[in-house]
Batch of 3 targets.
Target 1
Amino acid sequence: MALTGAAAELELPLEVVEFLGWLATERGRAANTISAYRRDLAAYVAWLEDRERDIFTVDQATLVDFVAERQASGAASSSIARQLAAVRTLHRYLVAEELRPDDPTIDVEGVRVPAGLPKPLTEAEVVALLDVVTGADPVARRDRALLELLYATGARISEACGLSSGDIDFDARLVRLFGKGSKERIVPFGRAAAAALDEWFAPDGRMVLVPAQWRRRNDAEAVFLNARGGRLSRQAAWAVVRRHGRLAGLRDLSPHVLRHSCATHLLDHGADLRVVQELLGHATISTTQVYTKVSQERLFDVYRAAHPRAIAS
């Protein structure tokens, strides 16, 4: 249900506008989140108006029809689940503010979103990616160090870009990463990443990009710098990964694929699931367990391809 036509031009009810303001000021939701809520609720309100209903007269049966029509339209389960979540939150707000006595969403069944398995690189593809970074100029050294560190640690791209020199213990080969909610974790890295970082921090590497005067105070401590001497941004780091991915023949490579690959290869080689959870900074073990499914799928693929009687003739 795209927000087009009447829905795009619809003037939202005052209560919905106040709800969006409440999300921003009381719940601290980001601007992008508020925009998504606005689009989903505008489409919901328009759908209700077409059926001579509104947010105060809608009942459970009508909401079930709403979900069913979204599913019949071929909308992705994730989109329907997101919109239903926005509708639920709105109706809970209306009850909390005593603008409506009941919540018609309470017994509406949720939409199951299939758990997609991450698509890790093979170990050969990782080698191809890392080998494609050639040259000894400062930018090549930086790119090699960034890619090696991402794969070695499973760091999120924001964590890598946020690194300061004091976060790396070169002798012990440890890096301090600050994850979601500023949660700190210490992650080891191996010889390959250590060698790439040593090259980057050598006199012909990072020092060449150091400007005569730092534009921002914290840039001086940044591990990864851009060509102008500022801290490498998340967007620029994404571009580094994608550019070298294309050179290695890996389409649409993202930093998160390197994180997936790190976790999957650790499990492939016998790492304990709890250890991988700690290394990746997952709050719950269930988040990490998706990688066990990936490893099982890879195991089954190898079996089917290699065992002489895996496929009946």
Target 2
Amino acid sequence: MPNPRENREKLEHLLICARGVLAESSRGRLVPEEQDEIRTCFQRDIDRIIHCKSFRRLKHKTQVFLQPEGDHYRTRLTHTLEVSRIARTVARALSLNEDLTEAIGLGHDLGHTPFGHAGERALNEIYSCGFRHYEQSLRVVDRLEKSGAGLNLCFETRMGILNHTVGAADDTNEATLVRLSDRIAYINHDADDAIRAGILTENDIPALVHERMGTRNSVRIDSIIKDVIENSAGDEIKMSAKMAEASNVFYDFLYERVYRNPKAKGEESKVANILGGIWEYYLKNPQLLPEDFKRIADDEGIDRAVCDYVSGMTDDYAIHTFTSIYIPAAWQIK
């Protein structure tokens, strides 16, 4: 009798179109494994990502607003969940592989630094080899998770994670969809958070965006999703030219009014000092690194180990570490 995985793989021939990736056609894992009886290979990737430590840490990493006061601002984790949900919705409508799409979406930002893109810029300045979060995301799943063993994900998931920002000529359609969904998510939820923070009002948003996308966050997301579905009937996963233009206008507006806004970004000048201070301390004291990172230092050098350690920190842990290193502890005279 076929097991549940085999039944699902047969069903995928009916559910997934010719331009999607079948689980049974995966190019496999870095280290070959026996197939699971219940889950397809991409379902297993989803589970491995959700249960890993790097995924849990995303809840305490900045999306856009550094240390916001309020419970409803996005974090790197909620951003990841929104991207994954948008991508999976479109994948189903386009008859692509939903599980591969979700795995890429859930894993795409695992390598993000504390303090969002400010942290990424800081590490890129400090680390001699340069730092790019999408490359670090692949390193997380290949090298850092499970005490150095990695998650041993499928090739298609790994390449989707690596290429989610810049793309590659041989991307799967599922990977392309996640890259597009990333943009759909962040231009809308960053605007929503900026309105919540009082940095913007809905009336500030460009008229072209209102005209082509709508005047509310949920309406805009729905409009773009429908546009992508309607315009991806051929070989390319894409928005229409008019929606892509509106998306670019929206992004440029957010870049000027939110991403460079002194109220939203006023504290970011401190990020380089925090991460740079931690970096210098562990560079001089490698014996104080956790054991996993000492092994990396032995294998790949101290710079690589410190980069991995610092980039994996949450915002709060980075602040706590910096404080414990450089700020005198309070004490009492009795």
Target 3
Amino acid sequence: MSNIYSIVMRKAECAADLGDGSERGEYVGQDYILSRLGRPMRSISLMYCYYPFDEHWPARISEAMKDAGVNEPWGYPYDDYFPYLGGIGGSTDSEPFTCMRDIRRHGQDVTLTLTIDPAVTDEMLAAIGRDLRPFGRIFLRINHEATGNWFSFNKRASYQEVADFYCRACRVIKAEAPNVQTILCIGGVEDLSKPDEIVMEKEFAEAVRKTDVWSVDKYMALHWGWPFDVAEPGGSSHKRWSVDYIYTAAKLSQKRFSELCGGAYKPMVMSELNADGDVTGPYEQCDMIRLFCDRLEADSDHWLDGICFYQFRDRGRLGLEIQDPNDPTVGTEQPVMETFREIIRRKCFMPSMTRAGEVSLPVTLRWGSSEDAEGIEIPVHLERDPVFLEAIFSDDSNLMLEINGRWFYKSPEARCIDLMPAFFGSRLNGPADLALRIFAPPASGENDLSAEDGLFNYYHTLTVLPELRIRTAPTAPSED
């Protein structure tokens, strides 16, 4: 390993994000997700709520009212997401910050979906901004699906008031945390006969202009009555749409958002995308998701900057895994898991990697975000398919490693990382020249705000390289 090169990681043509935990499932740790998917996501989406004036706050409302006889998903006084436990009088030692640190130390950004009581004060919003300052580039999706009628914030305020609150929250939070990028998630174009009009356009036009990122949530099939009923033929609590309708509506939404901003460009994401297996069954769920991504990949307009699959583990059939009813820490892989693995390895969904000049130790690595990072690349020559390939470390660096298309996490405590899974299912047929890539996201999950540009960048100086143990034959030959 005599040569070391600088390498720069930049954004994918269309980023791949993943939801992790909601009213339908618990948070799953990033070590497990990485082991199942083999690569980090651009961002992990978390779902929390903030209703600090309510009687039961800060309890999770379904637990506080478990004996209240609520019989529909959005029938509680406030949204049944995990409570946001920061803010005035709160603590960043609790959720969602424990999850956010886990996500960032694994080389991913955070998308924090936060439903908020529109009555909260500017002081409360400013406190949220201060909470978010250490977490680098973070996406904040405030009061998503804001043109709907199911969330508590829509029941407490008019659509115009919800739109005005969005603009106020953006202004106050970003004044405290310029590292935050706000996501406006509204209905967009829903009537294809009116392609030049988004839902509630008059009310939300200013929010479209004030936000950093445009977004729509689109399900090609959805059982919104879960878990209070079962989707059966003829039922009224589920529906299926064509892939063509969903794709066209989302693309027209992006076009109209841009027109409302005088033709300006802003990133466009689909913050929730799936086809509910409760409606389609497991196999047509795979077909619809694959067809959507096939069409996106073939579209020369490149109008979409990211898709977020909802979600990793679900108690219903909206997950790559179904949560075990006997043990919430266990998930059962669904066929859509393999479909998702295949999609996120397509070139258009992979971050770009560009080798720069040769460098020498010590070398300082920079982590700006999952779409803006500087690491190193070490050439690795293998004479044949390895039997053993291990990276042995002598320091306490927090690192993300990639070789042969597979990513691995090295915590500060870890000393030996087995890289052999990079060759399971992708064995070498002969000699090969590969590269071991190393990046250094923040070990604590937080940036050092004492650094001059600590709001946006984290730095780590690497003083020693790992030793590679490479064996291309068993340590003891067969006696047969």
